[in-house]
Input
Amino acid sequence: MTVLFLYTEIADYFLASCKALIKKGVEVHVVRWPVNKEAPFQFSYPEGLTIYDRSAYSSDQLMNLAGKINPDIIVCSGWVDKGYLALCKAYKKKVSTVLTLDNHWRGDWKQRVAALLSPFYLKSRFSRCWVPGEMQFYYAKKLGFSDQQISKGFYSCDFDLFHIQYLRNKEQKAVAFPKRFIFVGRYYAFKGINDLWTAFIELQQEIPNDWELWCLGTGDIEPVKHGKIKHFGFVQPKDLPSYIKETGVFVLPSHFEPWGVVVHEYAAAGFPLICSDAVGARVAFVENGVNGYIYKSGDVSALKDCLKNIMNASSQDLIQMGSKSVEKAKANTPDIWADTLVRMVKSD
Output
């Protein structure tokens, strides 16, 4: 079996899933856009994976490349690349052509236009749709794909990498739970990072305590200065274990976050989770009051309440919340992801 991915920006978790595919005997080819300068990941490509730089191929050259690869399935990331779309249209009647999307259905005019045009545009290029979860499933249905043509679980974290950290650290955290929140993401307004800083600082003023906030990332927002907020800049995935070991609760306060694989990652690492309701992955990995808290996006007062709930919880309660996160994280893994793709080929 041979799969051709037509991708935008790849990530370590995608490569972990590709590795699981290769272990199943699948030949994997990936055409991808250049690495984002704002997130300069240094990738370690699994053996057996062939990577192509999208910028080196015209639309005609891309078509010739696909002819040489002779894929059994083509998986395309979104519909912004015209060259990718032309290729999928040419192959739709030959092999499975799979559209991936991670946006929620919001019902705005752009999405309504997409839904109206989809029967003539997307459905002429794609035979299937692969989405992360329930909220994207609804959008795929609006685009005209049937239940049978839609698969879930498109995003999986590198489960083993993060679960190993849980296994390594759980005894130490049970003895002395680290009173540190951690944020991992870009420093942009849509990530809600200012909300988090404001909520945390106000709590420190109102109820002085020994909790800290560690922030990993870069962006166009100047890092706030506060004695209990630490900034570490962009951190490569391979360097995350030391931060995972020293922190206890993960927070993602985004105003816009179609999915958020990072939530899955920290669930697998055994963290209690705080997410805004704009984070798509919360549906799969956060149960309010059970393994974390969900609050209204942009509501700093509600975010403060979530932080306060964590600060007031006992170490034993936080450990139990983290173990429940791990159970939720097992719902999708690179191996499950690979099985889903293989089923797509076999069912067509």
In short: The mean pLDDT is 94. The domain at 159-329 is CATH 3.40.50.2000 (Rossmann fold).
